[in-house]
Design goal:
Blueprint lengths: L2 H16 L5 E2 H10 L5 H13 L3 E6 L2 E6 L1 H10 L5 H23 E7 L5 E9 L2 E10 L2 H26 L1
Antiparallel strand pairs: 1-3, 2-3, 4-5, 5-6
Helix pairs in contact: 1-3, 1-4
């Protein structure tokens, strides 16, 4: 594949990450680019890998989810080459981010994972982030991996209710 389409796809990813103040998941980036049929899944994963290798984006993996941020080098690169992204593509990205901002931010800000502790039990780590604030950062000790996995998977669905419950009980 010629480098010009790959360059455009890289700029699209950088533009998306630059337009939000929270990380985007691989699935969120893929959803937009694949729905618009800009490229296929395998090319997109190659592009994301090359951006990460070039330190233009940073990757944080929590559980089975990869979260991406644009780096200062990525911002600088985008600044130099942003004019290579057509206004139509920018409009598509801006519309997608505006229409899905709450869902995108909520998904990126609700994190959970678990691990086996040195005592043999499992620790479920649940977080709710809102920009630079962390309203909840919770560790729960549970006896089995199955329970830890179940709780970690359910955190996204119940985090708002748990937060509201805690606030109500502590007032």
């Amino acid at each position: 594949m010629s480098s010009e389409p790959l360059t455009l796809y890289k700029l699209i990813v950088l533009y998306m990450l630059n337009k939000v103040n929270f990380p985007l998941t691989n699935a969120q980036i893929s959803e937009f680019i694949l729905d618009k049929e800009y490229t296929n899944y395998f090319t997109l994963q190659q592009v994301i890998g090359e951006l990460a290798e070039g330190d233009l984006i940073s990757l944080k993996t929590v559980g089975n989810t990869s979260y991406y941020h644009i780096t200062p080098q990525g911002e600088e690169t985008l600044g130099f080459f942003q004019n290579r992204i057509s206004n139509l593509i920018k409009e598509d990205i801006n519309t997608y981010l505006l229409e899905n901002k709450y869902e995108l931010k909520n998904e990126a800000g609700i994190l959970s994972d678990y691990y086996k502790s040195t005592t043999g039990c499992y620790i479920v780590h649940c977080q709710m982030k809102d920009g630079k604030n962390t309203p909840i950062d919770l560790n729960l000790s549970v006896p089995t991996e199955k329970l830890a996995q179940h709780m970690s998977n359910n955190w996204k669905n119940v985090s708002d209710d748990i937060y509201a419950y805690i606030i109500q009980k502590l007032q």
